[in-house]
Amino acid sequence: MAIFAIEDAFVKAASVTLPVGQILIIFGLGGAVVFAVLARLNKEPLFIKDVISPPMRIRVVFEIIGRLFYVLAIAMTPLSSATVILQATPLVVVAGAALVFGEKVGWRRWSAIFIGLVGVIIIIQPGTDSFSMLSVLAIIGMIGFAGRDLASRAAPATLSTSLLGLYGFLSIVISGVMFAIWQGSSFVSLDIKTFFYLLGAITAGVAAYACLMKAMRTGEVSAVTPFRYTRLLFGITIGVVLFGESLSSTMLLGSGLIVVSGLFIMWRRKSVG
Question: Which end of the chain is more exposed for a tag (fewer CB within 10 A), N or C?
Answer without folding.
Answer: C
